[in-house]
């Protein structure tokens, strides 16, 4: 495509491209490098004027205190893993089921639109509205400060997206495949499990990736429900903002810990992430 | 039945079992156990956790410590009470919890039974929170905002102890010009920590906060001059002063780059006496506040929730945490202010801290809790911040504050507190 | 006849399939939403923890007359109106540059996606460090080129500018990645045909590319505009609404009213006002996108 254009203009364009790529990459990477450097610096070097960018000596004490056996961070990590894991499983299966149902339900298109609309509703309002009523509800069931209350809330936020995503995947499955399966004697459930799900496994993977990221990063709901037992990692980060000021060292270390899993996750699974986002919007 | 279906049934059963276990666990816990909230500060909460094993050994009561940053602590305490959750038996807080005082259990009978608080600093127990005549909180970690100053710099400049705010401003100006070459400023404050800004009003304002008909209101002339003087004083502060956090402002003083600092002493005194952490050991003291307004009292109190299932256990823990025996230890190890006079008269401590104890004690005696709800105080702080960054004039600020305050409801306990401390108009 | 019976029982099964998802959504979203709607019309007693009177629209009146609410709403609108187009333009620019299968493009895309996958709380704390007046990297670099960096988070104007930058840094990748997908889905033959006809790069861009991605662009606007209005996590960790009230965005304002001051009825009414606004915007933009899609 590019070969037909005049060579000079092309060259300038290439230069611009290169510059933008480099600038963009730097803009993304530099803050993280800075974060990491701060987490291994002695604290006063951060506050000193002018600041010393590179640590004079490497201190791992922030990390070691965070990861020490008695520390709460391991509990936070465990909680986050549990919440994210359970949310992903429940949201992906629940969402896939619902999506399958919506794409095969024999009702008027208007009803389907209404259902889809109400599902979409969830995406576009301030979560703060639901925090206190949800809190009261969880209290009635003695589920305050439990991971279950957080999981339920997280699933409710992510399921709509999964439904939309999976619906677009299911649409691409030719009805003839399902028809022939039915003719072979499979009931609906078997068609779903043995044929539709495997065929749309990329969609499932994508939903899983997106759900996991949203759940892992969620702060508002988790912080209002958890007090002692159910704290997750994002809450831990904000706890370093104390009244005296910010505990820069431990906070940098904690933030790095939160960021690394997601970064690795993204790098490894970026294919699914990209696909999910684009399909979710492209419909 | 396909394998997948079976798996799903298992999964659902699993969830139901987990929910069941959690509910059961909550219902069937037999041991005596209480939960206490503290501010996550590396001081109060850590001290509490340290005491837990010994307490359990002595009384058999298990204590869970729930620590949160200040803003969240307030939220957690209030939500717990308002929703009747009863998860926290003991709560740490102060006057800003006034909206929920009715949820706290009266402590008078415990106090009389155990002769509690007799050897505390005089007047401290009186400053504790009350509801309908009952005392609902007992104090720990009292701290009074103080002005610290560099004795050596003052001496070299030939300045005596200033007695009024105008004199303090003059001193700051003189010191700022005199030591400009050495990069030392006259004054420093953590203007970046916006919730601290009300101190500018409290220590310079000689007026009332609540009108005779129980509405929040600042006397305009007094308030305006207080804000104006604060702004003037900041002219002799380092250029980035508007963005300094408490730690950063304290660091400026500790590194010797400011002649005066206004701060919570508990945050700074340990480092200020430690040659490894500051350059000013032996060169500073507490500057007595001019006799205007009042120093801000930060007195943590422990309350017992009405929803606590074991109030006696809660009281036992409160007594244990605030034992006179702990006062000196907590002070030396964590810098937690002591509520007991004995600590301030302890010979060993006097030797080390004699230069600031009298000043601190004097401020503690004069210090008051402002009778403001969280919303009123936050608005005050944010509006003062607007003046400092030059967004509005002091006159407009006081006008805005009074307009907003007029729309706020004043809780009865705070009205009573204001009456008792002379902050309400007759 | 057999067929319709089969279809009926199938329908029932399908409805069963819907139940798990709906269970979660109803418990954690619909019920609280409806309850908060109910609360917004009542006077609420903190002690009894239930409404004690129906007060019609007075809560809504109170909210709409509150100058702080209006100010917060204004700030949020300005915020969203700036971040959305900026993210669109930069996102498109980046996407235009790095769409394609070349390895360097793929790697760059992967790296550039990272900011939007990290917890907003983490983004906020990272930028709080970067923008620290005395010790932050930004002012350090500025000083190296002789500029005295301002008090980023302590002056109202620069504080607002700072949260704009943070949001743009965090969410431009979102726009970029969707544009990449949209650009990649344009059939290559269209380009080849245009090139053969002698069209310049600019002409191709203007007459082919842009019109084709218009519907997607509207969708991006929808997501980013509403999400910008609803922003709270980064405010919480960078400026906490200050200095003064310069970064007191609407969701943060409601958060403080609800969980800090416990003005429950105010918060309920305010969030419903916000919600209706967002819904209207969403509906309008969705219809726009639909119409543009039809044109294609």
UniProtKB/TrEMBL annotation, chain B:
Protein name stated in the entry: Sugar ABC transporter substrate-binding protein
PANTHER family for this protein: ARABINOSE-BINDING PROTEIN-RELATED, DIACETYLCHITOBIOSE BINDING PROTEIN DASA
Species in which this protein is naturally found: Aerophobetes bacterium
Top-level taxonomic group: Bacteria
Pfam families for the chain: SBP_bac_1
Automatic annotation (TrEMBL), chain C:
Domain ABC transmembrane type-1 intervals: 73-285
Keywords per UniProt: Cell membrane, Membrane, Transmembrane, Transmembrane helix, Transport
CDD domains listed in its UniProt record: TM_PBP2
Transmembrane segments: 12-34, 75-98, 110-130, 171-192, 204-226, 264-288
GO cellular component: plasma membrane
Pfam annotation, one family: BPD_transp_1
GO BP annotations, alphabetical order: transmembrane transport
Name the UniProt record assigns to this protein: Sugar ABC transporter permease
Organism the protein comes from: Aerophobetes bacterium
Taxon lineage: Bacteria, Candidatus Aerophobota
């Amino acid at each position: 495509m590019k070969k037909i254009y005049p060579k000079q203009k092309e060259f300038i364009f290439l230069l611009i491209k290169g510059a933008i790529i480099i600038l963009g990459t730097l803009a993304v990477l530099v803050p993280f490098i800075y974060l990491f450097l701060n987490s291994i610096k002695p604290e006063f070097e951060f506050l000193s004027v002018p600041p010393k960018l590179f640590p004079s000596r490497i201190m791992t004490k922030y990390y070691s205190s965070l990861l020490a056996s008695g520390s709460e961070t391991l509990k936070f990590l465990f909680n986050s893993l549990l919440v994210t894991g359970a949310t992903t499983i429940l949201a992906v299966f629940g969402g896939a089921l619902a999506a399958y149902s919506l794409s095969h339900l024999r009702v008027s298109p208007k009803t389907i639109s209404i259902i889809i609309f109400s599902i979409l509703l969830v995406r576009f309002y301030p979560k703060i509205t639901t925090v206190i009523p949800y809190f009261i509800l969880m209290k009635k069931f003695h589920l305050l400060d439990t991971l279950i209350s957080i999981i339920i809330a997280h699933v409710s936020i992510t399921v709509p997206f999964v439904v939309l995503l999976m619906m677009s995947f299911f649409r691409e499955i030719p009805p003839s495949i399902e028809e022939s399966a039915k003719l072979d004697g499979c009931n609906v459930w078997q068609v779903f499990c043995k044929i539709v799900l495997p065929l749309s496994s990329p969609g499932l993977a994508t939903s899983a990736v997106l759900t996991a990221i949203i759940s892992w990063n969620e702060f508002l709901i988790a912080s209002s429900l958890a007090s002692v037992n159910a704290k997750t990692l994002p809450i831990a980060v904000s706890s370093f903002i104390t009244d005296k000021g910010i505990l820069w060292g431990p906070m940098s270390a904690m933030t790095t810990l939160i960021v690394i899993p997601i970064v690795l996750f993204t790098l490894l699974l970026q294919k699914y992430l990209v696909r999910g986002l684009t399909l979710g919007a492209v419909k | 039945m396909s394998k997948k279906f079976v798996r799903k049934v298992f999964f659902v059963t699993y969830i139901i079992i987990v929910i069941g276990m959690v509910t059961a666990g909550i219902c069937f816990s037999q041991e005596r156990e209480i939960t206490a909230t503290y501010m996550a500060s590396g001081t109060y909460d850590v001290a509490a956790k340290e005491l837990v094993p010994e307490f359990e050994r002595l009384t058999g009561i298990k204590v869970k410590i729930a620590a949160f940053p200040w803003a969240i602590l307030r939220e957690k305490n209030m939500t717990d009470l308002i929703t009747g959750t009863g998860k926290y038996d003991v709560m740490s807080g102060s006057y800003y919890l006034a909206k929920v005082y009715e949820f706290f259990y009266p402590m008078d009978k415990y106090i009389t039974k155990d002769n509690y608080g007799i050897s505390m600093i005089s007047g401290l127990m009186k400053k504790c929170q009350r509801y309908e005549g009952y005392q609902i909180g007992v104090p720990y970690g009292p701290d009074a905002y103080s002005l610290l100053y560099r004795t050596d710099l003052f001496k070299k400049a030939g300045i005596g102890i200033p007695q009024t705010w105008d004199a303090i401003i003059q001193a700051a100006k003189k010191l700022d010009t005199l030591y400009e070459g050495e990069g030392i400023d006259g004054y420093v404050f953590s203007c970046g920590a916006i919730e601290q800004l009300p101190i500018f009003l409290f220590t310079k304002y000689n007026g009332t906060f609540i009108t005779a008909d129980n509405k929040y209101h600042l006397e305009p002339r007094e308030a305006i001059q207080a804000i104006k003087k604060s702004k003037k004083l900041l002219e002799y502060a380092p250029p980035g002063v508007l963005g300094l956090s408490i730690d950063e402002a304290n660091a400026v003083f500790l590194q010797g780059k400011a002649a005066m600092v206004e701060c919570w002493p508990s945050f700074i005194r340990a480092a200020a006496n430690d040659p490894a952490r500051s350059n000013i050991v032996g060169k500073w003291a507490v500057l007595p506040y001019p006799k205007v307004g009042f120093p801000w009292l930060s007195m943590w109190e422990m309350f017992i929730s009405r929803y606590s299932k074991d109030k006696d256990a809660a009281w036992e823990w409160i007594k244990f945490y605030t034992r006179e025996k702990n006062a000196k230890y907590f002070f030396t190890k964590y810098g937690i202010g002591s509520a007991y006079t004995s600590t301030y008269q302890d010979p060993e401590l006097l030797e080390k801290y004699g230069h600031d104890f009298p000043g601190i004690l004097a401020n503690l005696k004069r210090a008051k809790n402002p009778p403001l709800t969280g919303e009123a105080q936050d608005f005050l702080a944010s509006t003062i911040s607007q003046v400092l960054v030059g967004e509005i004039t002091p006159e407009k600020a006081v006008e805005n504050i009074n307009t907003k305050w007029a729309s706020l409801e004043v809780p009865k306990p705070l009205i009573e507190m204001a009456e008792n401390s002379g902050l309400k108009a007759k | 006849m057999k067929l319709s019976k089969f279809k009926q029982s199938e329908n029932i099964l399908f409805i069963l399939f819907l139940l798990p998802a709906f269970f979660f959504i109803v418990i954690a979203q619909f019920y609280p939403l409806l309850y908060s709607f109910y609360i917004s019309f009542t006077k609420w007693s903190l002690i009894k923890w239930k409404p004690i009177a129906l007060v019609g629209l007075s809560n809504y009146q109170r909210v709409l007359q509150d100058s702080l609410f209006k100010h917060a709403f204004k700030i949020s609108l300005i915020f969203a109106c700036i971040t959305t187009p900026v993210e669109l333009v930069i996102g498109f620019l980046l996407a235009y540059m790095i769409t394609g299968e070349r390895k360097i493009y793929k790697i760059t895309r992967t790296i550039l996606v990272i900011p939007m996958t990290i917890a907003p709380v983490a983004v906020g704390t990272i930028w709080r460090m970067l923008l620290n007046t005395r010790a932050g990297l930004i002012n350090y670099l500025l000083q190296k080129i002789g500029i005295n960096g301002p008090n980023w988070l302590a002056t109202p104007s620069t504080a607002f500018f700072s949260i704009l930058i943070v949001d743009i840094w965090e969410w431009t990748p979102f726009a970029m990645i969707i544009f990449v997908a949209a650009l990649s889905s344009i059939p290559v033959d269209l380009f080849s045909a245009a090139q053969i006809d002698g069209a310049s790069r600019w002409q191709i861009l203007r007459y082919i590319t842009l019109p084709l991605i218009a519907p997607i662009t509207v969708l991006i606007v929808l997501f980013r505009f509403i999400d910008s209005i609803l922003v709270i996590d980064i405010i919480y960790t960078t400026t906490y609404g200050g200095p003064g009230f310069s970064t007191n965005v609407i969701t943060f304002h409601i958060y403080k009213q609800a969980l800090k001051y416990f003005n429950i009825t105010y918060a309920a009414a305010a969030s419903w006002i916000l919600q209706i606004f967002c819904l209207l915007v969403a509906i309008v933009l969705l219809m726009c996108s639909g119409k543009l899609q039809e044109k294609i």
